[in-house]
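Progress report, Aim 2. The chain analyzed during this reporting quarter is listed below.
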Amino acid sequence: MISRLLSEAKQKKIVQISINWPVRTAKDLEDRLVAEFGLRAARVLDVENLPYPELLSRLGKLAALELISHLRDGMTIAVTWGATLWELIQALPARAYPQLRVVQCLGALGGSQPCDSPAIVQRLAEALGARGYYLPAPLIVENEETCQQLLQERKIKEVLDLARKADLLLVGIGTTEAEVSSLKRSGYLSDKELNDLRMGGAVGYICARYLDLNGRPVPTPFDRRTVGLTLEDIHRIPCVFAVAGGAPKAKAIHAALRSGLIDILITDKVAASEALKIYEETYRRNSVATA
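Predicted C-alpha cells for the chain:
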C-alpha cells in the first residue's frame, strides 16, 4: 500500500524522490576554459573512461544543477535537441515557473527519437511548470523555396520570433564525426555528406549551423533549407548554455568556443583537456605563421 501511495504521489508531483551524489568537477580546467574563451561559466565533470551513455547521464545531472541557478520566472528559454539535453531534462527537479516560456527553435528531426526537439520542449516545460511553444516544421526541407514558404507561415514565424528574443538558449554541440552524429542517426545526413562536410572544413555545429575548427561559419548545401535560428540569431541571445562531452566532440567543442557563441559550457575532463590542447596548438601555429 505504501508503494502504491508513493507512486501516486510521484505522478501527481506531491512527492519527489532523489538521490544526492557528489558531483566532482575539475576546477583547474574550468578556470582555464573561462580565461581562454571568455566564458561566463564552465563546469567540467571530473571523470574519465566512462561508457558514452553513462557520460551523457552524468553530464545531464551536472548541467541540470547549473541550469537551475540561471532560471527565473518570466524568462524565455529557446531549446534545440540532442541526447545530452534529454539527460539534462531527466535530471531536473520539478519546479514551478508559470510565466516561463520554453520555445522550440529548430525544426524536428522526425521519427521516434526521444531526444527530438518537440519532446524536449514538452518535457522541459512539464519539469518547470512552464508553457511550451512548438515549431510545426521539419529541420531540413527538400528545397529553398519550401523553406522560405515555411518561414513565412504565421505560426512558424511567431515561434521563431519568440526564440530570437530568448533570454537563454539551451543547446548541444554537434559533430561531423559519424559515430556520434545525431544528424546521421536521424537519417538527415549520409556518410558521404558527412565526409563532404569534413572535407569542407566543418568539425561541428550549433543549431545545425556548421563551424570550422577556428569557429568560423562553414557554408553548406542545406543552410537555406534549414528551419531554425541562424548563427546571427544566436549571437544576439544574451546567454547560450551548451552541454557536450566525450573525446569525439572535442574539435566541435573547440569550434563552438572559438566562435564566441557560447557563454556557459558543461563538459567533461577528457573533452575539455583535448579542446584546450587544440587551442594551444592552434595558437602556437598562428604565432609561428605571423612571426
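The first helix runs from residue 2 to 11. The two ends are 76 Å apart (CA to CA). These observations will guide the mutagenesis work planned for the next reporting period.
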